[in-house]
Amino acid sequence: MTGKYQEEIKQGLGRILEEGKLAGKRVVIFGSNGPAEQMASFLECWDKSSGINSAHVECFVDNNRKKQGTQVMGRPVYSPQGYLTPFDGDIRILIASKYYSEMCIELESYGYRQGEHIFEVVHIETEGRNSLLMETFKGNVKKAEEGFKLLKRIKEKTGGAYVFLCPYAALGDVYLAGGYLESYCQKEKINSYVVVVITEACVEVLGMFGITCVEKVTKDGMEALVKACIFMGLKECGAGILHQRFPYPVALGRAGNYKGIDFNGLFAAGIFGLEKKDFHMPAKGKYLKEVENMFQETGIKKGKTVLLSPYANTATGPTAKFWEERAREYLDRGYSVVTNSSGEREPAIEGTEKVFIPAGWMLDFVEYAGCFEGLRSGLCDLVASSGAEKTIYYPGRVYQDGTFYGFYGLRNMWPGMDVKEVVV
């Protein structure tokens, strides 16, 4: 889930709370995915910070039978029909899903009404935006034409290099792509290539692997490039898309956890046709001098600093109180404790200093600091090969045919890795 949706969820819930629509009501969240966790987490924080119009989430409901009977953030997951019938006028149902319309049809059949009992906290668009309407078709063709022109400019600039697209700003995805590119290019006899990304952080991650021929485009530009390559054909365009969602009509990512397939294995076999052993770990020490200067300027201690990373786009984990207790424990033992933050939406944990560490420096920073504790995010991939003491926290939710931990667990992805992993 993108930062955009996180912010919109906070704003949407804030409006609903301020209007008092949840006060004294039984609050239920429809869905048990990342956005659902974000809603519950936000309401929990609101409940603690303000007794006015606060709301407590009773449970989650989900039509996925594999999720029913499990827990998310310590709350049970039930079937919608089992929990929401017979009709109860005191129930308020919060939704942040691209399936909002379908969910409403089901809920209305139980007697609940939009605006009174049902609230769409944020409107999440479906990814494909595809239909048989001529207007949609023409729009996609126009977008593909724009993308082909951009692709042509990139090819001209790079001397006809093979073009790899990293369509999302997810650091973990880009990290895996960067680690397999050398082996893939050797296998496919690709002598010259350029990687196209949408953020500077992605450029930095690729730099960890010595990949310097990188072009940064806008999000709209990337969408156009992807459409062009799918419309014209990857082979015809001399391009590849380094993500499990493309170019397949049904996302390859749905194979996650099938017969034990993890995140790394999905990338290796599904995207590159390689094995995990073909991954090239990034070299350490590239930004050691910058990290040393940062430690000197801030006064934090080499080998006795803990970097806390409590924020993630795709997972919700321990509460702020939990992180505060972890920070105090380290501080009492004489450690320096800092919170990794990319902006105002990621405040420092109480008792710690806020730091911003460029993505490319992250491996060297953690190696120099000596200790890392974080909620599972792409950042964890970046520091996975460090020799520091590492503790990673995972949400205890279902993912495809297994669990979130089963798919994203670092020791599943990298057998033998020295890391402590905790499912919360």
Major pleated sheet: 6 strands, mixed
Q: Label the structural class.
A: alpha/beta
Average residue pLDDT:
91
Assign an overall shape. Answer: globular
Strand content: 15-25%
**Low-confidence blocks of residues:** none
**Tally of strands:** 18
N- and C-termini, Cα separation: 20 Å
Overall helicity: 40-55%
Radius of gyration: 23 Å
How are the strands ordered across the major sheet? Answer: 3-4-2-1-5-6
- Helix segment tally: 16
Description:
This protein is α/β, with parallel strands linked by helices. 40% of the residues lie in helices and 17% in strands. It has 16 helices and 18 strands. The strands form four sheets. A six-stranded mixed beta sheet has the order 3-4-2-1-5-6, with helices on both faces. Strands 13-12-11-14-15-18 form a six-stranded parallel beta sheet. Strands 9-8-7-10 form a four-stranded parallel beta sheet, with helices on both faces. Helix 12 links the parallel strand 11 and strand 12. Helix 1 packs across helix 2, helix 5 packs across helix 8 and helix 6 packs across helix 7. The longest helix is centred in the middle third of the chain and has 24 residues. The protein is globular and about 65 Å long.
